[in-house]
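Record format v2
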Amino acid sequence: MTLVVVGSIALDTVETPTACRENVLGGSAVYFSYAASFFAPVHVVGAVGEDWQADFSRMLSERNVDLSGVRQIPGGKTFRWRGKYHANMNDRETLEVHLNVLEQFDPVLPDSYRGCQWLFLGNASPAVQLRVLEQVRAPRLVVADTMDLWINIQHDELRELLRRIDGLVLNDSEARLLADDDNLVRAGRAVQAMGPRFVVIKKGEHGAMLFGERETYVLPAYPTAEVVDPTGAGDSFAGGLLGWLAMQGELTAATWKQALACGVVVASFVVEDFSLDRLRGLTRADIDRRLDEYRRMVTY
Amino acid sequence: MTLVVVGSIALDTVETPTACRENVLGGSAVYFSYAASFFAPVHVVGAVGEDWQADFSRMLSERNVDLSGVRQIPGGKTFRWRGKYHANMNDRETLEVHLNVLEQFDPVLPDSYRGCQWLFLGNASPAVQLRVLEQVRAPRLVVADTMDLWINIQHDELRELLRRIDGLVLNDSEARLLADDDNLVRAGRAVQAMGPRFVVIKKGEHGAMLFGERETYVLPAYPTAEVVDPTGAGDSFAGGLLGWLAMQGELTAATWKQALACGVVVASFVVEDFSLDRLRGLTRADIDRRLDEYRRMVTY
């Protein structure tokens, strides 16, 4: 049930209407792996700089997160992102991006990861994602994330990637952009027609939709009264989803639905504090309690 | 199980990015009653002008909609609304409003309606809604709708109304305005604290949330690939909801959830065409089929 994530490891500076946190742990691989670790062990492939703190490694390793695929680049600095959320806590603007070690990074999977069954390709250029894909042997499920930048500037590579993965996870505005259709249902099906067997559209505070081979699932978000920092919600959602699938080891309709619920619920915790602060204090029992509560809210 | 709706009867002119329909049947009482009629007989209280067509009455009467509480005002013209939807089919602007017969209308319930058990107060001034409330004897459930205009200009009357009804149905931007809080969960609970036992927040294409005495329910919208005209979706949602409750005659958790699903599903049909055009061709069996489909999409 080996689950591997290839993605960014970041130091984020996040401004919200009421607070600001500087250089906190973030990045797609970090949020994904920490979220998935509640359900299954995770192996991370990524790069950090010399500014990486041993505390970060300890925090991740204390859970089921294996960092042996993370390279520390001599003389390099860790990827940094600075963003600002507007009053509605949904819209955000990127104030600064410093790729740093990610600028030249070409992920190399340790030999022991090449036979992985479950693979998540965090947001990166489709060219890089394709090169990762060439290193794995026969994964059961490959899911990728992407973003508007790649839809705009690496469209051909993205279309090539879409023909070679099982699932794509993207947010609503990206789905509209990629499909050139304002209607999310048509957009989801159009993206699916580009190759992936399933497409998950993330709608932030409005939940998510899955377009599968035979099924369509729609899920509301868990109703969160305190949204402190939405950063990482999408990657945590993907982490909860794939973590559950990897643990179950099967892809039935029932597993899928529960996996989506795991994604929703883990993400609902993440947004209640900055960085991984809310997840750090949680046990699997806390997750399970909210999963039960969520199920009562949506199931009838 | 008498269900009464007091609300507007309108001739709408609707512009969408691809089409325009002039003077089609609309209004809160029309959408509510037609939607509810799939589940229970409905009695409408409202006013129309001399421009009202016998065809409209026939169309409503052919279903379970009783129009004996509708007054035709001599020399008057029916309420008219003209609106335009933007490309995303969610945002709209009102281009023209002509109150016409509604300007002086003070609804009087026929004697036979005063003992009604289920009452929906469609969007109207809270002062008018309060006067209707004084005419009913001992209803089991009174639900009202409102809008930003009344939140702004009849705030005191609205607060008085909120203390005297069981439930309020309003859309997300109205909930934020009334509670002065951007977070919908806090806004829903704040509105509930103003009096009603339950508050339903409608989120258009993103579904709805119910804040009840002991429970919170969150429901995604049915994923609709063809949104032709969203006008009336909110009132149809309320119609499906109250129609189901009235038919069941009980207010258990299971009834509530199914009622919310009925609201979601009926509204999902309404937006597939202009006015009541999509609902007109439907049977209860069509509704039930989509209810089953929706249940499979959300329940796990």
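Chain B has eleven helices and 13 strands.
The CA atoms of residues 202 and 222 of chain B lie 13 Å apart.
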